[in-house]
Predict the structure.
Amino acid sequence: MFKNVVCVQCPIGCKIKVELTDDGHIKSITGNKCPRGLEYAKDEIQDPKRVVPTSIRVLNGELPLASVKTDKPIPKRFIPELMKIVKEVKVEAPVKAGDVVLKDLFGTGANLVVTRTVRRLENGSQKFQENRAGGGNG
Ligand code: SF4
């Protein structure tokens, strides 16, 4: 059996063909122009990994959510568990791009980091009034 994998490690995007034995073991890998593609194809077959973008709740921030992502790919099998955990995460504003929210996810060495700064809203009701006044005249 053959499986096709497109390597995303560089813009060339090699089309890699992985031949598998009947019991699912890798027999051969062809089409990669460099060793990175070999590793990528092996991972895609045995334990595919992805960078996970999502968002977390922010308390007392100018925005209710901050975007976050894993700072390296994690095995796809951990993604459902990560999403459950992320749903429960609340951080107090301010948060800065680059802040680490969760460390060493599932022992992978990947961290969940903030990708968008959210400043603290010092006086929510006052800002709301200002925004309404400004927004109505636009
Ligand atoms: S196999 Fe090498 S050259 Fe081909 S897409 Fe992957 S990283 Fe790029």
